[in-house]
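Async update (no meeting this week)

Hi team, since we skipped the sync, here's where things stand on the single-chain job. The sequence we agreed to prioritize is pasted below, unchanged from the tracker. I ran it this morning and attached the output directly underneath so nobody has to dig for it. Comments welcome in thread, and please keep replies under the output.
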Amino acid sequence: MTNTLHTPPTAAAHHERPFNGHPRRWEKERALAQRSGHVRDHTCSADCEPVLVYERTRWGWLAWTVPGDGSPPEIPHQIGVLTPAASRVQRLAPRWLTRRPAQQLTLATLPGSLRLSTACVALISLLTGLFAARHGIPVGIVLPAVLLAPVLAEHLPDRLDARALEHVRAVEGDVPCRYLQRLAAWHASLVQAAAGSDRYELRRSAEIGQHLLWDAADPLQTCGVRSASAELIARERLMVQLAHQVTQILKPTADDNAPGTTQDCAPARPLSPYSPGARPSTHPDPRRTPTALLQKGILPMPSSEASPVARSLDVYFLFAHEPYYPAAAQEINTTVVAAASLLHPRVRQPDGARIHDRLVRGRRPGEIVPLATLTHELDGGARWPEAGDWETATDDLLQLIRDHDCDALNLGLPEIARALVCNGPHAEIRAVDPTSGAHLAYGPADRIEVLVEIGRHLAWAEAGTPLWPGNDLLPPLNSADAS
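Output:
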């Protein structure tokens, strides 16, 4: 199957590998890790504590394991994000938390272990105490100091760790780290663009990117990917929009003299053969340039000047359908539209309005809701007759898209990804690898990964202007939800 889910271009492949662009640094750290700690290999269990190589950044750090085969890892073991409002002292927290682990001494006669630094401090304090006592300092002063010094050396680092962690959010696990790694790569491109520049828009975009990293780390740390999928998709969309706006700002001056609409200066949108550029002249959504938004210090959200019905809380409807081929070797089998497109008069009504009401109810702005999620919420499809004829509604939407009467993100999803979005949020897909014969299982976390990836492409396709739901839309069933 042809996969037309192309990856939006990025400024550079930041953080795809440890110390990207500095291979000698990685080789040096890897050699040191192999001498000083446990290297992860196929014999490791979940309880293994491998040695970590820390890559410090302006916003935090990435902690990498060292694979046994010597190859650089692809996913960090841990990612830490520093609070955006950190003071000079608080900025020392990542450096303190990523220090080399203390060496432990295990005593055969005593349970537990002791830090090597504690033993050194105990020895030094004892020698200092004996020297002080020989020079006439009272024992009542020397003895408490000799006893207190090793106690502080043993317990003070833990207290400092707890204080430093108040200003840092650390995320572990393959799926959360993979998501935050992508955000960090986008943010790195923003920081690179702002470095050495006195333009307010570039510096402001880097500041917003830091806030998005910090906000994304919170649900990943406390709730996990599955519980916070809608928030994560929305934040990744915002980060991609920021990167797109910075790209426009950095364009040569000759491009800036082009006609002043966002659509005119936006790059080609490879995901959608029916580009939102070919719209009726009665398009209701005025546009503002990304530069204007950044100068005002506003997050680059879609324009809010459209009618309340057209915005529909910025929720999106994803549905799979029979493949069609608008161009040679280009398969379209899944489509994303603005939820408000269900209110178009050419969609079967009142079915479209009822489905729209179910779709937007209780959603977060920017959430992408698959048709299969609605089926799951409607008791596995048993209550679809209450909502409407979804088959006719989706057929009408497809015809609307092909007639250029609304915008859509048209995707050619691979088989596994399409199967995941065509099943409920808790379903499991099993497949057999034809080359090895191994049985593979894909579950809710993989489904969320697919939705996050679609959200990233939606952000790129929408950069500068949101999807247009069409003209002459009907009022929603609950107008209060749409306003």
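Quick observations from my side:
The longest helix spans residues 139-165.
The two ends are 42 Å apart (CA to CA).
Reply here if anything looks off.
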